[in-house]
Amino acid sequence: MTTNxxxxxxxxxxxxxxxxxxxxxxxxxxxxxxxLPVGFAAGVLFDDVDxxxxxxxxxxxxxxxAVAVILYDAGLGLEPARLKGHTRRVVVRLIWIGVLVTGxxxxxxxxxxxxxxxxxxxxxxxxxVVSGPTVVGPLLGFVRPKDRLQHILIWExxxxxxxxxxxGALVYHGVVASSGHHLGSGTALFLASVGIGAxxxxxxxxxxxxxxxxxxxxxxxxxxAQLAAVIGVAALxxxxxxxxxxxAAVVMGLAVANLPSFDVPARRPFxxxxxxxxxxxxxxxxxxxxxxxxxxxxxLPALVLAAFLVLVVRPLVAAVSAxxxxxxxxxxxFIGWMAPRGIVAAATASTFSAGLVAKxxxxxxxxxxxxFVVIVATVTLYGLTASxxxxxxGVVRPSRSRPLLVGGDPWVVDLGVALKAAGLEVLMxxxxxxxxxxxxxxxxxxxxGELLGAATGGAAELEGITAVYFLTAEDDFNALAxxxxxxxxEGAVHRLSAPxxxxxxxxxxxxxxxxxxxxxxxxxxxxxxxxxxxxLGRPAGDALLPGGDLLFLVRRDxxxxxxxxxxxxxPRPGDTAVLLAPGGRGxxxxxx
Length: 592
What we know:
With 592 residues, the protein is of the alpha/beta class. It has 22 helices and ten strands.
């Protein structure tokens, strides 16, 4: 290809990847629904978009290294210790039972249906066990199922990606080792692949420990050095044994996230942005390699395979996983109707199929187009039907706002009581035990003590929270926590204003949504509360009490509109106004 063709091809892939993600975000649909058809159409219409022509033999190794970065980032978000209570048993079962049952039944059907060899069928069965949070998350955000379902499905998606990728890598090496070798030598080669991946993960973990704990590099250099370590170790492992770098990357991510000796930042904006870009580029590039010719004899059998996975395998896995738990029949039904395939299935299919084709495995060329059809079919089907199924089963979360109030002072607790009395499902968090006990006595739901730490790591604890309000006496904590959590919840994150003469380290200098009038600082709230003021709710049509301040409007439909530094919502008939009113507190206040 000429230089101009390469420039046009690379530029077009990048623009299509980011543009598709922007469009999907505006439409509030999973990016896959846009990325896959756009990439396929681009591959048909523009020869310059074909990554195999653009990159030649470099395409497959680059895909492998890109997936290694994605899996490392996924591993960083996995802390199994957070899985507690009623979700743990179901999630763990969905992982191991799902992998075994889906892989086995998918293999048994794929061989005769797609006309491929046993080895190729085993490979596609292993590839199709994965789902993924990049697909499940947007779907659940649109459907808004009840909290327990949200937590179970988000955790399953977060855990199944690295688990499925490791299973895929192990199966790939098992298939390669079994072709042309006796059982003994094949087993030895398989174990060698596992050993190289695990050893590479251990070496990479030690290297990251040096970066984090010994060199203590700055944020920018430390992040780029971390990225270089992951790619370098994955590349070295792939040189020693093909695609063992995926195993090493997952091991490194899990180790960094779970070993106490590591000190990883709560938010990783560089990795988040990088992974988002890689996802878009991979989907456009991989979709562009799927040609109409390759789909001609595959699309119908692959649709039958997708229907089998959706209608038989997933409901079976969900039913078995929920045995002996307190999940209702409706909750089990919804879990059985939510298993879209995502980026790891596409990327591993692209990587492993190329290797198996080169090894001469029969039917290996059908793995990628068949996986492409299953991804498109499952994402489209669940995207179009999940909301309707959830409503039919009665597992949709009420559309009313669900705010999280951070703070446990008496006036904050009374604010929570007032919002709850207005019909909202209020959640509160406080660090001191005396404040937590005050919240319990008031009858407001108390968030777990580790919620904020878990939420900054991207876990499922904040799923369902529509807004967060930081109302503690520590202005710097409010400002920093608001910055960390921004983007982790569906709605906005607000904090109290710091006093004009504040000498805080952070609060006076950081932006963000400031709650209420800037003069209403924590000190002002506490002083006025000591003087007898109260936080109370009253019909919005009533006159504002003299000396009172409007804090929130609870809309008739359950939405919560706060008064902020830049705007004051206008009341409408049926709204409830939440006020800081002078002299309105009686001796029976629950916060006392």
